[in-house]
Amino acid sequence: MIKILMWAFPIFLLLAVPVAYSMLGAAGIALWIEGKPLAVIAQRLYTPTQSFPMLAIPFFILTGSLMMSGTFGTHLVKFAKFLVGRFKGGMAQVSILGSIMFGGVSGSAVADASALGNALIPIQKKEGYPGSFAAAVNACSSTVSVLIPPSIPLILYGLVSNTSIINLFVAGILPGLIIGISLSTLIWYAAKKNGYPTSKYEGGWTAFKSELIHTIPAIFLPIFIIATLRFGIATPTEVSVLAVAYALFIGFVVYRDLTIKKVYEAIIETGIMTGAVLIIIMASSSLQWILTLEQAPQNLALWLTSTFSEPWMIILTLNLIMLIVGTFLDLPAAILLLGPLFVTIANAIGLDLVQLGIIMVLNLAIGLYTPPVGTTLFISAIIAREKIGSVVYSLIPFYLVILLIVLLFSFIPSLTIY
Predict the structure, then answer these.
(1) Where are the domains of the chain?
(2) Taken in order 97, 99, 102, 107, is the CA torsion positive or negative?
(3) φ, ψ for residue 331 (rounded to 5)?
(4) Mean pLDDT throughout 382-409?
(5) What do you get for the CA distance between the two ends of the chain, in Å?
(6) What count of Cα atoms within 13 Å lies in the side-chain half-sphere of residue 268?
(7) On the CB side of 27, how many CA atoms lie within 13 Å of its CA?
């Protein structure tokens, strides 16, 4: 059945069939040709939904929607501008810092690219930045959101690999910060070379104190999540519910810009986003069942360990596979498809599963701003009204920096498992 999946699934994708339906179609064809009952698909669709930790996904999505439904985004941009606007390429630096802070609220790269891109790219173009450069910065920086807690991809990886979500959240902080610092350094160099302007914050300390008061509650959210999990106060699912309560309190009591109508709209948006994620989770379960039945993880692990003599060669090969798959599949689908396969390989070579999770998210996140799928790439290019080719050309230095960071976290375990 593996051979059938290998040609059926890519054909569906090439025909522009949505990923979830491509998975279901490939699984259905494989079962039908092999004479297996198609009722298996219905059973596998139902099974992954019966997971208590999975409830954390819609609640964290709702938290981000509630926080961003008011004026928080405006205050965040102003706060970031005060901190880094004085440096060369200041407004592009704001995009990086904003993504780091916004990632702790939304946990979604797509939400980050849309919200910050609409706010910052027009301003950057007005200040003299090339549109392709502004789009490249937004497309790349928004992927920090998939590492800073609460990260939806890390939750998905934790579910499919049976790895502690708490440890994954803690491990995601350092790579997120390193990416932010590295990209900021690259932007500073590009700005100095090309003469991009600074963007000093006007208003003085009095205005800054006002923005700080508005921004601190949102910045505190990821700290609250990590502390609550780390000290065993609540499970990830319980923390996600507490995060929603926290967002409601901030919106109604502190910011006072949240209304019943906005809450309703946030719930609708959450339902749509959760549905998109959940249908991929349900569809991938059918493929995972077939792969497990055919012992694909064990066979792949055996082939890799027998072909390559050193663990570092296997890790390098896994990175290459993830980079290729990430350019064709959305991040959640790629995690659900590759996670069960790579866990077996990681156990065979002694690679810590937390480290594997960070490596996987780092690699697959590159696909978010790489053709042909490139979700944040297309969003940023549309906002900037630039051609995809020119944005990709501007992204080349960013690709090189991120790939170096991937190698860093692939071969230095202490950076993820401390």
Answers:
(1) 2-417
(2) negative
(3) -55, -50
(4) 93
(5) 41
(6) 7
(7) 28
